[in-house]
Write a structure and sequence with these properties.
The complex is a heterotrimer. Chain A is an alpha+beta fold. Chain A folds into two domains: 98 residues, Beta-grasp domain (Ubiquitin-like (UB roll)), CATH 3.10.20.30; 132 residues, Alpha-helical ferredoxin (Fumarate Reductase Iron-sulfur Protein, Chain B, domain 2, Orthogonal Bundle), CATH 1.10.1060.10. In chain A, strand 1 and strand 2 form a beta hairpin. The longest helix of chain A has 17 residues. Chain B is mostly helical. Chain B contains four helices and one strand; from the N terminus they run E-H-H-H-H. The longest helix of chain B is centred in the first third of the chain and has 30 residues. By secondary structure, chain C is mainly α. Helix content of chain C is 86%, strand content 0%. Chain C starts with a helix and ends with a helix. Classes of the chains: A alpha+beta, B mainly alpha, C mainly alpha. Chains in contact: A-B, A-C, B-C. The interface between B and C is large, with 36 and 39 residues.
Chain lengths: 245, 118, 111
């Protein structure tokens, strides 16, 4: 009310509005301590423009639904603080790359998850007994550790959006799906190793990867799909040379 | 209104730049190889002609071009070894340092070539 | 089928890289050594003429390059241009043949 009070700190955030064609629209949002990028987007949708489309659920980094492109880098917005990305006082938020834009910040993740299916990213019990008996898997075994390294994926699509090979070859299965296959190839209870390797080796598979390491650089869970794909390259080559592919 | 145009900042990390160099050097070498083989076969048996060609290469501009090719070859070699190690050996967490080492090897080869050039 | 083709191309690309690595080291070292005090046709020929060692080194070099380069260029074209499919594969094979022909002539001239 009195003109003497310092103005409330503000942040100008530009948010993508539209589909494949659209524009970045600037909004003024109050700057708060410990504010996340998702807080900013939610504020715009609740207080400024209720037509803004975006997606989120858990807000605590578990569900993998709130990933967006923040200043050109794919991130999980619920765990990305504004302080960390607004170094130059500018925040530009867009939808994830490499997926069709439904509207504004919401992308269609169907192609991303379809590829998990195409990559045979599902567990196949090795035999009927497996369903009845308790599988003994030493936690310290090499295979189990290799599988463990990749199982914490939350399916957020950040790696897929960061991957240039996906951008160049729209059939490419992508880091998340291949990482999933690698955990299954290393799962001693899984009985479809040959199928997994054959799916991972296809025209759209692991051999297309150029090890840019964007997937591991930006994975919010700190996973390393590049190493998983390198493992698939080795195992598929072995099975190719054995005539099993 | 228009298409989404903004810098893909996720590309700006050392390993991506290593990829760009590997691809650019590979392409340049692939273009150079046929030229290199052609001039060799054409001229090496006609000593006078080949030596005239070698004289042309004394031109500082050409010398610089040669050093650049040496640099590209050494860079492609070091970068290729990096990729082979990444794909066929255990994963190493110091990938950025490996990129730096490959650049160092390439630069050293280019410098050695220039130092030895008459 | 295309999956197996890609896998084989990967094996050929990395396999030829394994072959090329030591050969390129030799090539770089020879180059840096040979240019000291200037280069001449006579000097090159005196090193390579009737030498089974240099003949096989350069012969293997040409063969490995003929495998390695076309696969790499094919990947670049597939990823960065709209050109894909059978015609590109044929073009890559022609590029391979070009390197083999020019390489055989060049190595022949040196021996």
């Amino acid at each position: 009310m009195s003109g003497r009070e310092p103005p409330e700190p503000e942040l100008v955030v530009e948010i993508w509005r539209g589909r494949e064609s659209g524009e970045f629209v600037p909004y003024r949002v109050a700057r708060r301590e410990n504010q996340t990028v998702l807080d900013v987007v939610s504020h715009v949708q609740r207080r400024i423009d209720p037509t803004l489309s975006y997606r989120f659920a858990c807000r605590v980094g578990m569900c993998g639904s709130c990933a967006m492109t923040v200043n050109g880098i794919p991130r999980w917005t619920c765990r990305t603080r504004v302080d960390r990305v607004a170094g130059n006082g500018r925040v530009r938020i867009g939808p994830l790359r490499n997926m069709p834009v439904i509207r504004d910040l919401a992308v269609d993740m169907a192609p991303f998850f379809d590829k998990w299916q195409r990559a045979t990213g599902r567990f196949v019990p090795s035999d009927a007994d497996n369903r009845r008996t308790f599988a003994r898997v030493p936690p310290g075994s090499r295979e189990r550790q290799a599988a463990d390294a990749g199982i914490e994926c939350i399916g957020c699509g950040v790696c897929y959006a960061a991957c240039d090979v996906v951008a160049w070859n729209s059939d490419y299965l992508g880091p998340a799906a291949l990482n999933r296959v690698w955990t299954l190839v290393n799962d001693s209870r899984d009985g479809a190793r040959r199928e997994h390797l054959a799916a991972a080796a296809g025209d759209a598979g692991c051999h297309q990867c150029h090890s840019h390491q964007a997937c591991m650089s930006y994975c919010p869970k700190g996973l390393n799909p590049t190493a998983a794909i390198a493992g698939l390259k080795r195992e598929t080559v072995k099975s190719l040379l054995r005539g099993e592919l | 209104m228009g298409g989404m145009k903004y810098a893909i900042a996720s590309r700006n990390h050392p390993v991506y730049w290593a990829f760009v160099l590997h691809r650019a050097s590979g392409l340049a070498l692939a273009v150079f190889v046929p030229v290199h083989l052609y001039t060799l076969s054409l001229a090496v048996r006609e000593a006078a002609r080949f030596d005239a060609f070698l004289e042309w290469t004394e031109n500082p501009l050409v010398k610089g071009g040669e050093a650049l090719l040496v640099l590209l070859l050494a860079g492609h070699l070091a970068g290729g070894l990096r990729l082979l190690a990444l794909e066929f050996l255990e994963w190493r967490d110091w990938q950025k340092s490996i990129v730096a080492i490959t650049l160092g090897i390439a630069a050293a080869c280019g410098l050695l070539f220039l130092m030895n050039a008459p | 089928m295309t999956g197996r083709l890609e896998a084989w191309l990967y094996v050929a690309q990395r396999g030829s890289a394994f072959v090329l690595a030591p050969l390129v080291v030799v090539h770089l070292a020879t180059m840096i050594y040979a240019i000291r005090g200037g280069l001449s046709a006579e000097e090159i020929l005196s090193r390579t003429e009737d030498s089974a060692v240099w003949g096989s080194v350069y012969g293997l070099f040409v063969a490995a390059v003929a495998v390695h380069a076309p696969i790499g260029v094919r990947s670049i074209v597939r990823e960065m241009t709209p050109w894909k499919g059978r015609s590109l594969d044929v073009a890559a094979l022609l590029f391979c043949a070009l390197i083999v022909v020019l390489g055989v002539r060049a190595v022949g001239a040196l021996l």
